[in-house]
Amino acid sequence: MNETIICAVGNVATQPVYRELTTGPSARFRLAVTSRYLDRGKNEWTDGHTNFFTVWANRQLATNAAGSLNVGDPVVVQGRLKVRSDVREGQSWTSADIDATAIGHDLARGTSAFRRALRPEGGATASAAGSASVSASASASAPSEPEPEWETPPADVDSPQADSQQAEEPVAVT
After folding, report:
1. How many angstroms separate the CA atoms of 7 and 76, rounded?
2. CB neighbourhood size of 28 (10 A)
3. In sequence order, which residues have a C-beta less than 8 Å from that of residue 151 and are 6 or more positions away?
4. Which helix (H) or strand (E) holds 137?
5. For residue 56, what is the enclosing H or E element?
6. DSSP code of 166?
7. Along the 174 residues of the chain, how does pLDDT read in single tens digits?
8. Taking the chain, what is the end-to-end CA distance rounded to the nearest angstrom?
9. Fewest beta carbons less than 10 Å away: which of 93, 101, 119, 174?
10. Are 80 and 101 in contact (CB under 8 A)?
11. DSSP state for residue 146 in the 8-state scheme
């Protein structure tokens, strides 16, 4: 089957709407994708046309998207493009939807803290609100593995940066 797979980089335009359906979890949100170009006359970057897509996510992707995305977040969305034409009240409408296979924060424009989601037991789906508590309780009962070495090796004593690095308090990673 021939499908159009796209990768769109933009901002979350609406808060994701999460629903539990008989076929499993589903979430949707609007994605705003604005082109930017260098206006050589003004010698500055200028916003071009903004395209809006409705992004649909299903199953675990829907649960994770609903719990992770907020309006304004920069994201990268990959999925199948579906363009639909419709006639409503005598007017012709065209909409572009993306059936998402992957969604992630755009790390070129910020940072993100990843938390691995656990698969639900027995085929039941976890709700968006319950997935955080499941992750916390599962991590306490998971077999303990040695903690990786997160500390930075000490700097050379002769370097001028050594004094400033030793004065800073290390940041704990949880």
Report:
1. 7
2. 20
3. 170
4. helix 130-141
5. strand 44-58
6. H
7. 688 999 999 999 999 999 999 999 999 999 999 999 998 998 999 999 999 999 999 999 999 999 999 999 999 999 999 999 989 889 999 999 999 999 999 999 999 888 887 766 655 544 444 444 444 444 444 445 555 555 555 555 554 544 444 445 555 555
8. 45
9. 174
10. yes
11. P
